[in-house]
Every structure is written in C-alpha cells, then in structure tokens.
Amino acid sequence: MNLKTAARLRVCALLSLVGPTFLPTVLSAQAPIRGFPQDALARRARLEAVLRETPDTARLRASMRRMAAEPHHAGSPASRAVAEWALAQLRSWGLEARIDTSEALMPVPVMRRLELVAPTTYVARLAEPAIPEDEDTGDAGQLPTFNAYSPDGDVTAELVYANYGLPDDYDELARRGIDVRGRIVIVKYGGSWRGIKPKVAAEHGAVGCIIYSDPRDDGYWGDRTYPQGPMRPEMGAQRGSVMDMPTYPGDPLTPGWGARPGGRKLPRDSAQTIARIPVLPISYGDALPFLRALGGAVAPDEWKGALPITYHIGPGPARVHLALQFDWQVRPLYAVIARIPGASAPDQWVIHGNHHDAWVNGAEDPVSGAIALLETARSFAELRRTGWRPQRTIVLALWDGEEWGLLGSTEWAEANADALRTNAVAYFNSDTNERGPLGASGSHTLETFLREVARDGRDPQSGKDEVEARADFALSRARSARDSAEARLPFRIGALGSGSDYTAFIDHLGIASVDMRHGGAQDDGIYHSIYDTYTFYARFHDTTFAYGKAQAGAMGVALLRLADAPILPFSFSDAAATYGRYAAEIDSLARQKLGGNGLDVTAVRAAVDSLAAAGQRFDWAMNLALGRGTAWLEQNRTALAAINRDVYQSERDLTDDAGLPRRPWFRHRLYAPGFYTGYGVKTMPGIREAVEQRDAAQAAAQAQLVSAAILRMAARADRAARDLLALRP
C-alpha cells in the first residue's frame, strides 16, 4: 500500500467514525454556524473533525527541530533553505506550491562599538554567551545584537536616562529642565514598539539612542533566568527593527509598490522609514555600568527598574561613545505560496500567512506558528485525497523578512494589490503560538464568526471549549472588578494595529483580516535572542505540542468555513456595535482634550446607526436564505457569488486613497497603528490622533471621512440584503 492510499484510508476511516454520537464534541451539538444552512451541519462536522484531528504533535515537534535547527535570518542562505524545505513538504502532500521571490534593503552590521569614556571607562561586550545546556545557543551564523535600519554613525556625548523613551517621558524631562539635544539617550525596552524610541529621541534632538532590557520587565524580577527559568539572562539582548513602520512597512526603498528584483527603487537618502540617529540594543548586564555612572536627579519611582543601583537621570557625568557601521545591501526574500483551487468560486481567495524568517533560530518566533500552518496545510491535503475541494480558493503563505519590517508580506501584497482588492475574501495571520487560550484580533465584521470557531474547539489543557477556557484564563489573571467583568463578556476580538504580516492586507488594501493564536500562559524573556531555541520552547512553552495541534485545527476550521460558506458569515451588526463604542470613546476623549463641547461626533454616530440598521436587514435576509436549505443555495450559486463579492468588498469601503494624515500608505479609517505606538492600535486613528494633538479642525475633518466610510459599508450591506431578498424562493 502506497503512502497516498494509506492517507486516504485514514481520512475516510475518520470521516466514517464521526457519527451522530461524536458530533456534539466536534460542533457543540450542531449549534448553528453563521453562513451555513442547518442541513449542511452534519457534513461540516465531519470535515472539521478531520481538520482538528489530523494535525500531529510528533510532526509538529519534528518540524520545529528542522525549521529552528540553525539561525535563518532573512536574506541568508539558511532562510532560503528553510523556504525550500517547507516548499518540498507542501509539494510532497500534493499541494500546488512555489517560491515567490522579491527583495528589500536589509543592512547588516559590520562594526558596533559602545563604550563609557567618562567618568570611568567600560567597553560594552555586545555579545550573548552560549549556554552548555542548550547547544543551539552556540550555533554558527548568528546575527549580532543590533537594530535593523539604524543609520551609520559615530557620536560621543553625555548620557541621559529617558525611561521608555516615549513622548510623555520627554515631557517629564522638560518639566525637570533636562534637554536631550546633542546628547545620547538610554531607554528601556517596553511601553511601545522599539522603533518609536529612536524616532522620539531624534525629534527631541538626541544624537544617539541605546535601548536595554531591564530585568524588571523581562529578567530576574519576574522569574529565574534561562537556563534555570524562562526569563532573560544577564547578557541577553533583544534584536529588532527600528524601521518607522507607522509611516509605512515593507522595503524602505519601494513604498507602495512591490520590490521585484531589478525594479525601481528610491535612493536610500530618500527613504522615510530609516531611523535618523544611530541606535543599538544592549543587555542589562552591559547597561549597568552606563546607568551606574549617571548623576543628576534621582529618577521618579515609576521609571526605576530592578538593577541594583539608584536610577539617576543625568545628564552626565556619564559620557558615551557610540559607533555603528552597516552593509547596506538589497537582499532576496523567499515567500512560500501554496494554493488549493476553489471548485465553484476560484476567484475568491481565503488567505492564511505566517512568516518563516527569524532573528536567530526563532523556535518561538516564528517557528511555533509556522509549523502549525504546515500542519493545517497537510490536513487540507488529507481532505483533498478524499475528493473534497473548497468552494473558494485557499492560499497558504510562509512569508520572509517579517522581522525586518513586514518585508515579504508587504512586498507581495503591494505587487498583487489589484488582484487582492478584487479577489481576497479575508486574510488570516498567525505568528507565535504557545500554551494558553485562543485569542484573536481583527475586523469586527468577523467577530461572531470567530466566536463560533472558538466555541467549537477544545482547549487541550482544560478540555473546555475555547470560549470558556479563554474566559477562565482572563478571570484567573483579573486584577480588578473591571477586569473580572470584562472576562465574563461574550468572546470579543481586539482591533488590529501593526506588528505582524496582516498589516498590508488590512491597513493598506482594506482586506478583512484576523490575527489568531494561542498563548499567554507563560511569560518569558528570550524574545529576539539566541535563547529562542527548540530546547527553550519545548521546556517552557508548548511542552507536548498540544497547543500547536489546537492552533492548526482552529485555523483550519476558520479557513474551511470561509472557503465553503454559501453566504459569507460577515456581521455588520457586530461591526456597528464596536464602531459605536469607538465613537463614544472619542467623544469622551475630545471633551477631555478639546474642552467645551469637545468634538461633534453626531455624523459618526448617525453613520453607525445606519450600519446597525443595515446589519439587521442583512442578518434577516441571510437567515431567510439559509433557511431554504442547501439545494436552494446550490441553485442560486451564481447569484450568491456576486452577493458574496459585495459582502467581502465591504472592508474596502473603510479605506480611501487619501490615507491618514502624515502617512497616506495607511488607508483604513477604523484601524491603524498609532503614530507613537508602533504596534498598538489606534481606532478611528485620524480622529483620535487629531484630538490627542488638540487639533479640533483636523479632528472634525477626519470625523467626516470616518462617517463617510461607515456609510459606504452600510450602503453595501443594504445592497447585499436587498439582493438576497430578490432571489426567487
């Protein structure tokens, strides 16, 4: 018996075993599934059982050992080797797959020097030592500790401690009469995305920036350090990009268009997203002599870390020399793209992506998520061998260059922008995956859909459904009555800002997007270090790889439902409820920041009300159509395809070509990373940031744009409802 025949028999056996007695554990006693008629639920349960049960923990473990076996940063031969291995896996399962090549500017360091030159001397080691208990920490090919897209520089200046290096911290320095102009600042990781720190420092006139990991945030303050525990050891340092991603992600030289080999590029000195001052990450072991040498005022209590010193602000008497030089080359990116063609609507695409590149070995980030994607792909391949085909096309992608600034996903999305705007139903993202409850953020038209996916899955540890498990986890971590109350709310999803590969899809192209993964049960301090290895992950995170199996299953079910739903399960009612909360938040913020009557949000509230009413009409029309059963839906497949296209195009209605002030690449009116948050989302960002800047005129103008966007979505929802009702019974 050959392997393909054996696999087919295994799946057929599983399908035959999934009978009525098993269905309640798979599908909550055949609870309704949005977008499907009642008479289709038994078949859905059988298909979904295969997707939940096929992922294999032994395969997940073996795949992590292979993908995290050696350092494989983007642009390196090792990154290409990982991509080619993943490609071979996908093809061995019978899937159509290829490598899509793009390129981007990716500077690597050729010289790094940081030294204390007064009042004492110290030369920073700038190296993470290997540990005998974990052989991968001594692998060849490790990138040194650095911040990608720091400029070259050689500066000597007084040192100032600026807490987390955020705008409020510089306001505090100003209140104390401390000016950072012409000085080097040292700041802690945390509080915001790392790229914001040199950006704000440069805006205040600093000539250099040092970022260190304080043990209060991810070191010995929280737990024992690796290898005895999961926290960052003394000389561990966090690599990472400091690209100005709130302006635009992706290749700095090709903003808005795909970076194809040999294509047009901006001159490097025209790129807006390269940092303006040299910046370098260091360990808390290296930071200690610099901080100890500072004088001046004692830092406020909330600025103090856990090092055994009195934290002073400066300036001086510590004087620092920082010198950096980089090799500024354009390097290749290798995205692995697999397709499962749709049977009836091949031009409607459901996309799932995770990246494969890492700063070093990257077992947790990103391999834990990448191996789950591969098991999802293998599960679909097993289903295909039984004769199943999705109705819509499923696209599975392993991106390259995410760590540098979402390079591969952004360049692919920009290069295929027209096709994606026309064909993409939704984009599903994962990144890391660990032990802990299922969590999701994304487009709020998909909130009910995601709640149902979670409802119908099981948490590996508790055995409860994923909704209950998440609520229990939140209650166990609640620190206030408000936290407890929020934990008891129905399964809600967060909003997306930036920080992973969904960014180009939702923020630039207006494609409904979801970021979904398990995790949260274990804090650690090995992020972007040489200690992010298989040995660490298997010891401190998903020790049995059961959560990898759960992730692969949950994502498979989500993709399958969107790929097969006769009517796409978008909920405009969910969106309206969430947008209404955003409007209320902005109204309150405006009264605080602008005084008087604040900002008139009447038009935004009216638009939300219109969307809510349209959502109700769409829900009624959808339920009426689904109630007519599978046979009727099949008879109207062509008409429904056009209606579904209208439904998924609704997210595009929330974008416009003008984009946000100061950063037109970001086109979504409801979601974007904050200008000074980096990863963190700002909802209704144009209005919110104008209010925060106390610019009443701009806030009013942005409110009109937001209300217009919501009205466009409402009109589309109304049209979809009308077209559904127009179909003959």
Give descriptors for this structure:
25 helices, disordered N terminus, 7-stranded mixed beta sheet, 18 strands, alpha/beta, 729 residues, 15% strand, Glucose Oxidase, domain 1, Transcription Elongation Factor S-II, Chain A, Aminopeptidase
Structural commentary:
The protein is α/β, with parallel strands linked by helices and about 725 residues long. It contains 25 helices and 18 strands. α3 (about 40-55) packs across α10 (about 365-385). It is globular.
> What's the average pLDDT?
95
Q: Sheet bearing the most strands, described?
A: 7 strands, mixed
CATH T-level fold name of the largest domain: Aminopeptidase
Structural class: alpha/beta
Secondary-structure blueprint:
Layout: H1 3-17, H2 23-27, H3 41-53, H4 57-67, H5 77-92, E1 96-105, E2 108-118, E3 122-123, E4 147-148, E5 153-161, H6 167-175, E6 184-188, H7 196-203, E7 208-212, H8 215-218, E8 240-241, E9 279-282, H9 284-292, E10 319-327, E11 330-340, E12 345-355, H10 363-384, E13 392-399, H11 402-405, H12 407-415, H13 417-423, E14 424-429, E15 438-442, H14 447-455, H15 466-477, H16 481-487, H17 503-508, E16 513-518, H18 534-540, H19 546-564, H20 572-594, H21 602-626, H22 629-635, H23 637-648, E17 671-673, E18 681-683, H24 685-692, H25 696-726
Helix pairs in contact: 1-3, 3-10, 3-19, 4-10, 10-19, 15-16, 20-21, 20-24, 21-25, 23-25, 24-25
Describe the structure concisely:
With 729 residues, the chain is α/β, with parallel strands linked by helices.
